[in-house]
Hints:
Elements: H1 2-33, H2 40-71, H3 79-90
Amino acid sequence: MARRRKKPAIIQSVVIPGLSLLALLGIATYALLGPTGIIAWTDYRAALKERSLELASLEKERDALRNRQRLLKSDEVDPDYAGELLRKELNVVAPDEIVVPMK
């Protein structure tokens, strides 16, 4: 019976701390190398800079589109802009106009 009592003592003194250590090592490894770990932060910073530049470009394009929308409101269309669109999209030119292509 003395041997049976030693097995639980060995389990308590060796196996349980060993498994706990393995679990902690796994958690630490995941914290360093995981998709949201410390090493991934550098990738996130680079992606954030790229996205910030892309956002600025898209905001500029959005503002230009809002301006075009404002100029084309159905109740108050800007005549100059409407004429520009007709000439550009439909190649409509009055007989007395001279077209100077710009490259």
